[in-house]
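Reopening this one. Same input as before:
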Amino acid sequence: MNDLSFGQGRPPVILGIGGTLRPYSSSELALRLALEEARRLGAETELLVAADLGLPMYDPAQAHHVEAANQLLEAVRRADCVIFATPGYHGGISGFLKNALDYLQGLADDPDPYLHNKAVGCIVSAAGWQAGATVLASVRATIHALRGWPTPLGVAINSAQAPFGADGKVADAKVGEQLAALAGQVVTFARARVGVHL
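Same output, byte for byte:
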């Protein structure tokens, strides 16, 4: 892969959001690998896995009182771009992570509302190709609604095919290649965003 280092300018910040309440689930492993590639390409990264979020169900009247929500919003504000990874549950994004995205309503009145002008890499891990493709389309629609730019490549991982080994490393070379390509697209967009102050 090409070197996308950032020279003398500040490195962009890539925020990863995702996973499940089960530590090191396939969606979390995929997210960690994508962020590892983003770091290799010169970005700074931050990770919020599902267990870190610990958010109550979104209530617009109470959301501003939720400390974990405020931490999420600040992390999104700091980020130049985002990588989002979700399991596919019954043909859709997990309720836990959709709830986290609902809290982004707290960015509505920002100068750059929601995910405005941020590229968002989308990763789905599901037990079957049909579920992965269906959920990936749903994630893209949600990112569009939040004014983000889904990367051209979205990665759907069939978790039934054991894409990761017991050591957490990628066991399917194609999955590794796709995650690296997705990270490269996010970092390329982030570099442009930092360089021209979009």
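So the earlier flakiness isn't reproducible anymore. For the record, Residues 173-196 form the longest helix (24 residues).
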